Amino acid sequence: MKLRGVHVSPYYERAYLVLEVKDAVGKVELAGMPGGFGSAELLAESPLGKIPYLLLDDGSCLPEGQIIAEYFNAMFDGHDLQPAHPADAARSRLVARIVDVYMAPHTAALTRPKFGRVGPDEAAIALALETGLPSAFDFLEKTLSGGGYAVGEMLSFADIALIPHMFFLESFLSEYGIRPFDGRDRFSAWWQYQQSTDLVKNCHARIETSLDAIMASMK
Q1: What pLDDT digit, counting tens, does each position of 144-176 carry?
Q2: Residue 22 contacts residue 79 (beta carbons within 8 Å)
Q3: Contact at 8 Å (CB) between 172 and 126?
């Protein structure tokens, strides 16, 4: 198997984190990204033209970070990131969906111009700041369990989805005056615990290294 992508992608990191939790990093080839975004090489392997994607041993392609994360969780032994209780399993999937549908698009509106590929979309930025991100944070606040783990008392897909995106909240959004934890005790309690873990520290260090390399290549 070959995992394609770069660590600056929070969705690539989501899949990679599962390998880390499962102690299975050495069982999958980390193959980088062929040719760059939108390249003919990438499109030949992945019709969606997006990263991450997983090339299976039979030559087929499995795209989307959450799908790959679930595949790795099922494939490898170790801690099961899918909670056993049906209600907790549903909430875990809900947190991942909140990240993907309600938070990430607004985060991208603020961070994408930093990469120099597009100019700022002032309307999208205003929407993100005024209602988009605050609503996503409020949604998370009502969904999280209120402790050190997003759902229940064990690490789950909910934590794995949130952890990479926290890098961008911490690194990019402070300049906009966004304060995601103000008045959100559950979200704050989760981050107070998680930010001190090696899982988070290692994840964010990989993202920062990858981001630095991309920014240096643009000079």
Answers
A1: 999 999 999 999 999 999 999 999 888 877 788
A2: yes
A3: no
Of the CA atoms within 13 Å of residue 35, those in its CB half-sphere come to: 11
Cis peptide before 52 (omega within 30 of 0): yes
pTM of the entire predicted model? 0.93
User: What DSSP line would sit under 54-123, residue for residue?
Assistant: EE-TTS-EEE-HHHHHHHHHHHS-S---S-SSHHHHHHHHHHHHIIIIIIHHHHHHHHGGGGTSS---HH
Structure tokens at 130: 């005024």
Q: Are the C-beta atoms of 52 and 9 separated by less than 8 Å?
A: yes
The pair of three-digit structure tokens given for residue 181, joined into one six-digit string? 């934890």
